[in-house]
Amino acid sequence: MESITFQLNWEPNGFQAPYFLARERGFYDEEGLEVRFVEGHGSPFAAEQAARGAATFALAGASAVLSVRSRGLEPLAVAAVTAKTPAAIYTLRDVFGEPLEQPEDLAGRTVAPSATKTRILAAQLLENAGIRDEVDLRDVDPHTHHRVEHQLLDGDVDAAVGVVTNGLELERDHDRPADELPIGEHLGVYGMTLVTEPSFAADNPETVRAFLRATARGWAVASREPEAAVDALVSRNATLERRREIEREKFEAAAGDLQVTPHVAETGWGNHDGDRWRRLGETLAETDLLEGEIDPDAAWTNEYLDADAPAIRDYAERAGRWR
């Protein structure tokens, strides 16, 4: 067995359930891999760990991959996990005063972002809708620890920027109707990716292919058996049992709305679409998130995706996510 490390972007949650299921079902073992999962501290940290060789693989947002590359490191995305960003603008109906259904509804409102990257995506969403100058999109407050829910609960802001299911969590926890506006439905940019260090991939191509095959199997089976996926997640972190419903919602959002697109249905699981990377690069280029110039096309490769593996080639059908 070959021992490898997998750096997660955050603590275990529903978005990560397929990886835990893949390990529980022995998919990594069958590929000759002993995978040690490491809890994370955000996508930039995960991408940097992979780029420095401190982790064999990492789960990181595409914007973080480009940000880390702008600092001179070279995380390489070897699979695109979610074709759409999980970022979302959410609100409570009794705060907003009406349903939040489209970007134009945010005109004249105050919006608080939870992190710099989601703020940038929200700004681009508003720009595309032609209302950027009509919205008070606040700067990220470093004292919120990436949590802006209390500002929304207190009515200090009209909406917040986080990820899909944040609104559902508030609705469940406080019994107040919520609405979510998924940014990924309006911006064609990538969300989560699997990354490694380029020289490791070049020297160990079969290890990379094996990891991706097993992971694709995990995603496909999890899509068919979502409760089993959540069970595997809870086995890792028992405290999530009380949040089981929300964790399943997170997984369902990732596996359905965020992951399977016509491109994935045609080319298979994990396959990169260069247009989405270039569009993301253009979105980030005018921000202070990037510390130097980047080439979005150098940040990804399809070289290590085993196009003949059924779980990759026929992913959409096997996952039951395409008609």
UniProtKB/TrEMBL annotation:
Pfam families tied to this protein: NMT1 (PF09084)
Record domain SsuA/THI5-like: where: 17-229
Record InterPro entries: NMT1/THI5, SsuA/THI5
Biological process annotations from GO: thiamine biosynthetic process
Pathway the protein acts in: Cofactor biosynthesis; thiamine diphosphate biosynthesis
GO MF assignments: metal ion binding; transferase activity
Reactions mediated catalytically: N(6)-(pyridoxal phosphate)-L-lysyl-[4-amino-5-hydroxymethyl-2-methylpyrimidine phosphate synthase] + L-histidyl-[4-amino-5-hydroxymethyl-2-methylpyrimidine phosphate synthase] + 2 Fe(3+) + 4 H2O = L-lysyl-[4-amino-5-hydroxymethyl-2-methylpyrimidine phosphate synthase] + (2S)-2-amino-5-hydroxy-4-oxopentanoyl-[4-amino-5-hydroxymethyl-2-methylpyrimidine phosphate synthase] + 4-amino-2-methyl-5-(phosphooxymethyl)pyrimidine + 3-oxopropanoate + 2 Fe(2+) + 2 H(+)
Keyword tags: Iron, Metal-binding, Pyridoxal phosphate, Thiamine biosynthesis, Transferase
Family: Belongs to the NMT1/THI5 family.
Summary of subunit composition and partner proteins: Homodimer.
Function: Responsible for the formation of the pyrimidine heterocycle in the thiamine biosynthesis pathway. Catalyzes the formation of hydroxymethylpyrimidine phosphate (HMP-P) from histidine and pyridoxal phosphate (PLP). The protein uses PLP and the active site histidine to form HMP-P, generating an inactive enzyme. The enzyme can only undergo a single turnover, which suggests it is a suicide enzyme.
Name of the protein: Thiamine pyrimidine synthase
Organism of this sequence: Natribaculum luteum
